[in-house]
Specification:
By secondary structure, the chain is an alpha/beta fold. 39% of the residues lie in helices and 16% in strands. It binds pyridoxal-5'-phosphate.
Length: 453
């Protein structure tokens, strides 16, 4: 079996860091001169890129980014899914331009007919008949959790260890010793200890789900159909059918967050795997880069929530936001869903991700390195262990910052961008076979430099 030579890895990492500094002097200068931004960047996550400073970009179109130093990158990060439709897709740009330049009214707190078109299309995709809009998936999740608590009269939620659903207080959890619900490492200023709001379970572990639900105080189980934010952890056969049954047994609603897993197809895993959620959340990709999100409800939940006179849905009751559902966002969603993230483009993206996965698998076989790659439709991700992890906790334990930084820099220095948070690659409508082949070639070279037989 091949192994990673640690001293070779550290030397190679240093070499790649130096190369990165040489290739990106203008990005480095701009970062060094940013004195009034917390952490030097407009949003602190942008410090996650390997190499000491982020790449500042000059232009972005489709899956190509040109940085301020003139380097061209094939972008597999795609804004961590926000740009899954490709950067500035033509149809979205046309619609947004019309809204801004001709029709006017970016945000008015008044609806346009685009919103109903979008809701109907989301029904076609995910099967939920009633939708409400947000500007982020975080907000859609927050509001949906409130609705679930209201209609069930229960105050707790259940979430999987190492899940991620945005900056949603109740979900920043992991499983501690003895199955205890504990905070994710680094949780910033939690309002209350997370165990007060949440019962934790392990993905692919039905016993742990039942342990969490059998108290009958859990309003809703919130889940990605496959974990995608701690590497990709795929569900085992029968897992979702059994979770649905447990939810029904214990009176818990099931919220499926498709924000990343829409990569599985036009209707995400909900459609592809015939899941039966009570609530679906979607965000990031559907506005083609313009802030957009939504939650969808079954008719039953929708009519129940409208029947609580004491629940203030139209003002300060805790759901909704001033700019949510604005005309710019809804026109961007309509154009992106109708003309960019279509059924046909999904076929193309999924074919490319399959090629991506097969290329990586071949390199791993050739080098005998015991890593794995998981594919979820148009998305694929490698993880530094084999067999593939079954739970978020297992996947978290396989994290290896040195390898990850090295691979990210090796790729970035040769014009390929991976998602900075892990090793995720996403295909967009304009990704090509040549782009995927280039990644495979670089992956082989990167491993060759640090592997020993
Ligand atoms: C599954 C999932 N849900 C929700 C979110 C939150 O999205 P946003 O940060 O756009 O609110 C994320 C972000 O990564 C996510 O991966």
């Amino acid at each position: 079996m091949g192994t990673i030579d640690r001293s070779q890895l550290l030397a190679a990492l240093e070499h790649e860091r130096a190369l990165y500094r040489r290739r990106t002097p203008e990005s480095s200068r701009l970062f060094g001169e940013a004195r009034h931004l917390l952490g030097g960047v407009p949003m602190t996550w942008m410090n996650k890129w390997a190499g000491g400073h982020p790449i500042y970009f000059a232009t972005a179109k489709g899956n190509r980014i040109i940085d301020v130093d003139g380097n061209e990158c094939r972008d597999f990060a795609l804004g961590d899914t926000g740009a899954m439709a490709g950067h500035s897709p033509d149809a979205t740009v046309r619609a947004v331009r019309h809204r801004i330049e001709d029709a006017g009214g970016i945000t008015t707190m008044l609806p346009t007919d685009d919103a109903e078109w979008v809701a109907e299309d989301l029904l076609r995709r995910f099967g939920m008949p009633q939708w409400s809009m947000s500007l982020t998936a975080t907000d859609a999740n927050r509001w949906a959790l409130r609705i679930a608590r209201l209609v069930t009269g229960r105050n707790k939620i259940c979430a999987f260890s190492y899940c991620y659903h945005g900056a949603v207080d109740e979900t920043l959890v992991r499983m501690g010793p003895g199955g205890a619900t504990i905070e994710r490492e680094g949780n910033v200023g939690p309002a209350v200890p997370v165990a007060q709001t949440t019962r934790v379970a392990e993905f692919n572990d039905l016993e742990s789900v039942e342990r969490a639900l059998r108290h009958r105080d859990v309003a809703v189980l919130i889940a990605e159909p496959a974990l995608t934010n701690i590497g990709i952890v795929l569900p085992e056969p029968g897992f979702w059918k059994a979770v649905r049954d447990l939810c029904d047994t214990y009176g818990t609603l099931l919220l499926i967050d498709e924000t990343h897993t829409i990569s599985a197809g036009p209707g995400g895993c909900t459609k592809a795997w015939n899941l039966r959620p009570d609530i679906v959340v979607i965000g990031k990709s559907i506005g083609g880069g313009v802030p957009s999100g939504a939650y969808g409800l079954t008719s039953e939940i929708a009519s129940r929530i409208m029947s609580y006179p004491e629940a203030d849905l139209v003002d300060v009751g805790g759901v909704g936001g001033t700019l949510a559902g604005n005309a710019l966002s809804t026109t961007a969603m309509r154009a992106t869903l109708s003309e960019v993230l279509t059924d046909v483009t999904f076929d193309h993206m999924i074919e490319l991700a399959t090629r991506f996965r097969e290329g990586v698998e071949k390199v791993l076989t050739d080098t005998s390195i015991p890593w794995t790659i998981a594919q979820l439709g148009a998305r694929a991700e490698y993880r530094f262990l084999a067999p593939a992890p079954r739970t978020g906790t297992e996947s978290a334990a396989a994290q290896d910052d040195d390898i990850e930084q090295y691979l990210h820099l090796f790729m970035a220095n040769r014009g390929v961008l991976l998602t900075p948070f892990h090793n995720m690659a996403l295909m967009c409508p304009t990704t090509t076979v040549a782009d995927v082949n280039r990644h495979t070639e670089l992956f082989g070279q990167a491993l060759e430099a640090i592997a020993t037989a």
